[in-house]
Amino acid sequence: FRCKDCFGMPRCGDCLLEVHAGNPLHTSEGWNGSFWERASLLSLGAILHLGHGGIPCEIPSAQSKKMNILHSNGFHECYVEACGCVETDGVEVPFYRQLLRAGIFPATNKAPRTAITFACLRQCDLLMTQGKITGHDFYETLVRLTDNTGIDRPKEFMRIIRLWQHLHILKRAAVAFLPGGIASAAEGSCAVLCPACPRRFVLELPKREGNEDDEEAVDLFLLRWFETEFVMADANFRLRCKDRKITDLPLTDGLAYYVRYGPYKAYLATVGPQTEINVCDSGLHAVDHANTRGGSAYLASGVGACQCRHMLVRPNGVGDLQKGERYANMDYIIASSLRGPKPGRLVVSYDICCQWSINAAKRLPTLPEDICFSPQDLVFEGVIPKFHIAAHGKTCQSIYSLNYRAGMGRTDGENIERGWAWMNPAALSTREMGEGSRQDTLDNQWAAWNWHIIIGLDITLTKRLDEACLEATRHRALHTAFSKTFKPELVEEWSTMLDAWVKDPHNSPNPFEEPKSTISISDVRKEVNSEEAAEVSRGEIPLHATSPGQLIVALLEVEEQQRVITGLRDGVRDNKVNSRSLSIDDKDIALRRKIAILRQVQKVYMPGIVPLLGENSADDDDDDGSEETLATETPLYFPSSFPHSERSTVCAEGLAAMELRFRLAQAEETLTHLRKHLRVKGLVDDFKRENTAGTGQKANTRMRSLLDRYEGIIQRDAARYRAAWEAIVSLDPDGSWKERLLFLDKKDVRPIEKKKGQSEGHREHSWIWLSDPLQGAAAVREGTEALNEGLRAEWAMSRSRAERWEEEKEFVQAEMCRVLINFKARARWWRALPGRRIIEDDLVRAGMVSYAQRQAQIFEDLSKNFASLWL
């Protein structure tokens, strides 16, 4: 005989049993004369003895029996001999308890025939959270490892793993130490809490030196850095739940991340239907579809959730959605995640915050008593995540911007999207579960996610602080140098305007608002979207899921990326391989793939380009030959790329006219940007010449870097305008646009100020500075006034960048302080727990004390490790 789980040589049956006295769940094989075949240790006489550390009991119990035990290497038939000894109370230890003490989880506490080892359950739990495999897949894997088709215990296995995960959530939250047990556990008390967020019961506020006499400054400091709580809210419509017509209640009902089932459903029943009115000009449909998602086949159309600034899911911060993102659901979920004492300052990041926050002050106080609060009782601010805000209108892009609002640091608000990316692989399995089983599974997933984030905070916060220190210094220096290029009274005027806007962004003039060009790409895009929607409503089915307007916009974006990557590549020395050049190569590869995707859409709307696409060109991402052509050198084939005589045969009807509309807007918009960037570069150049010449290498290098940055932007603006102009000439050579959009020569790209040594009598403005090239000095004055407004916006953004990085530095330092304080407090909390509940059973009490000491040591070790890196 031989053992497949050991490295020993073949042995006789007696020797094999002797070696495996402590390992009865190994897989053994026997030689039948021709080959090795499975031979269980049970068939050789192996017995699993309980109660005496593997030694046979002198008075074995009548409960002894043959059992099916599932281990991490498969199924095993094993004879289990129970101990018949009695404890101090004169009662024999129940069989199921003996199994648990041996590290084996029985399927039932009454005459169990099936059990699973703790090692197997731990492995399954880890694979379910990390790899998102299903419990059924894990079970089937073990069945195949066993090569036994006669064992069929999937229901028992799924019940056990669910109960195992539930008990561990309770165990890690110290519920067993509560005098009233699980019945006395508070809502959300089993969630893994973020140690970097403000929690008043452990927070020790440090004093800030130098402001002892300025109470207002001290209060503002504490409010911003130590009393600010960030809540990132969003919905995920992949995490659905089918209506399986079964009654399945959650085990961890309201104890961890999900809101309590009963009160949540009762509140929604009182709200009734809500009409969500979308007054924002964003491209998002959360409000429009608030009452249209879902269906009778689903109990939940998705989930709404809240995370903190550090990506941890908040306690009681998750709830099922019945339709779309209705205010009633999201109000309850957000308020529930804030259960308990409220922070001094609350920042809610939500992709439709511009709509949700309008009447939030009226809705939130009407919630159930245990979670309701009034935003007017604290400093309440609503913002939109940085990626999502680009789809909103101009007004939202400043008022709700995390880049412009004070006290936000470098928070991007998109953390919850990263959490969804981690959770989404579990959607396919959880949607098939019962409602309660699904909630328990998701609670377990989020517990693993939160702990994973916590143990990585040492590296995460270190990187954030290093970056914040570097960028805060750099951007403050750049802003200081930039400010010196303007007159002091103008800077003071802009500062006053920006300060007023920061205090009241809804009712103050917007310093970030730039003068609007005649027409912008966003305007055209909005018009085209409306027209295409009207066509669909009339029954005109588009040729492809991507509309013609979306295709042109995507091609324009790719064209711009080609210019950006080309500029980056020009700044790298030839044949010099470094991290920057490799990064550029990665960008080129990503762009090549994007072009390959667009080619499939182009073939629908531009069938005439198919012969131009070679089999081994960059258009086919799967071909080896695609590596030979850079994405920046790949022709994009706009309608304007073809002569007028060929265009009708190459392109679908209306596509050329669509490009013309976008190209005209692109040219107008680019001219505005070009004028602004030329003015900025001219001011910086003047300041450098007058103030930093000869003052030292550091100052000159800084100003040179600033000049180089704007020179690159200017050249890209000029290239974009020329591309737009050439396309317009091809599409509409005799249009009225020729009166205002002229050819941009290299000599036309110059500041409005006269050149050095040039007399006023010989001074001549470039046509780009005229609001209308056919007008005279009046157009120059009009263009200059508009440009000053654009420079103010550039200055305001420059100051905001510097301030956000400085705030991030303060935020991260405060978070590091909180983490260390909370770890130490958590360790003290665990050590004090054994005295909270009287346990008569000596063995149980000893186990609870041991577990509490172990948990306390974990947090003490975390505190020491983090402190050694930070201090």
From TrEMBL:
Entry coiled-coil feature ranges: none
One Pfam family recorded for the sequence: CxC2
Domain CxC2-like cysteine cluster KDZ transposase-associated: 42-150
Highest taxon in the source lineage: Eukaryota
Classification via InterPro entries: CxC2_KDZ-assoc (IPR041457), KDZ (IPR040521)
Protein name in the entry: CxC2-like cysteine cluster KDZ transposase-associated domain-containing protein
Organism: Schizopora paradoxa
Phylogenetic placement of the source organism: Eukaryota, Fungi, Dikarya, Basidiomycota, Agaricomycotina
